[in-house]
UniProtKB/TrEMBL annotation:
PANTHER family: V-TYPE ATP SYNTHASE SUBUNIT D. This is V-type proton ATPase subunit D. The keyword Transport applies. InterPro entries: V_ATPase_D (IPR002699). It comes from the Eukaryota. Belongs to the V-ATPase D subunit family. Keywords: Ion transport, Transport. GO terms for molecular function: proton-transporting ATPase activity, rotational mechanism. Gene3D superfamilies: 1.10.287.3240. It comes from Olea europaea subsp. europaea. Signal peptide: none annotated.
Length: 261
């Protein structure tokens, strides 16, 4: 496209004009819906961005407190608490499951944590540091909960980013390519139909002129034939030459015109 938006290569007829107008209406509605979708996704995108920022800020404090709790547990119970914990834990109690949430037609992944089974305080009866190990466990549970929330926000952020880019590309294509092309096509078809209408009007005027001249020729021929017959009758009746009879008719017609005027 150089300077102007191109038009569709169509035959300029009334039927095609109706079809292109219907396509323009559909493109306009689609543009409005996609624009609303883009705005809704942008609002959700900004909300998630704010939540990510606040979650990452609190993540530092939570991870710091969890690491400090682990240091305290090692200080109280000793450095060999890893083997003791592994012996007392058979399976994970804190698990994560995924689901999807529909936001303006976009499916966003969501992660939820849940506790599978009962949480036993078997480590409380250790000779040293059982209570401190339970406190360390609680601190890391909070860290996991925050990590699951952050994973949900980050995944939703990336999904929304791709969806917004795709939607904006479609909105720009409809606004800058499809709609102007259809509008130019409609203008072209209307111009061609107007030109055809002017050509038909000119053709009808020409035909009417031809018919009028043909009728005039017929009328003049009939008048000349009648005058010839009348001149023959005068020539036979009065015994004068045919030329004199024509002169007599001309003089009579001149007198009639003088009387009228």
């Amino acid at each position: 496209m150089s300077g102007q938006t191109q038009r569709l290569n169509v035959v300029p007829t009334v039927t095609v004009l109706g079809v292109v107008k219907a396509r323009l209406v559909g493109a306009t509605r689609g543009h409005a819906l996609l624009k609303k979708k883009s705005d809704a996704l942008t609002v959700q995108f900004r909300q998630i961005l704010k939540k990510i920022v606040s979650t990452k800020e609190s993540m530092g404090e939570i991870m710091k407190s969890s690491s400090f709790a682990l240091t305290e547990a090692k200080y109280v119970a000793g450095e060999n608490i890893k083997h003791i914990v592994l012996e007392n834990v058979s399976s994970a109690t804190l698990k994560v499951r995924s689901r999807t949430e529909n936001v303006a037609g976009v499916k966003l992944p969501k992660f939820d944590y849940f506790i599978d089974g009962e949480t036993k305080n078997d480590l409380t009866g250790l000779a040293r540091g059982g209570q401190q190990i339970q406190a360390c466990r609680g601190a890391y549970v909070k860290s996991i909960e925050l990590l699951v929330e952050l994973a949900t926000l980050q995944t939703s952020f990336l999904t929304l980013d791709d969806a917004i880019k795709t939607t904006n590309r479609r909105v720009n294509a409809l606004e800058n390519v499809v709609k102007p092309r259809l509008e130019n096509t409609i203008s072209y078809i209307k111009g061609e139909l107007d030109e055809l209408e002017r050509e038909d009007f000119f053709r009808l005027k020409k035909i009417q002129g031809y018919k009028r001249r043909a009728l005039e020729r017929q009328r003049l021929s009939a008048k000349a034939f009648a005058e010839e017959k009348m001149a023959e009758e005068i020539s036979l009746t009065k015994g004068v030459p045919i030329g004199s009879a024509h002169n007599m008719l001309s003089q009579a017609a001149q007198k009639d015109e003088d009387i009228i005027f």
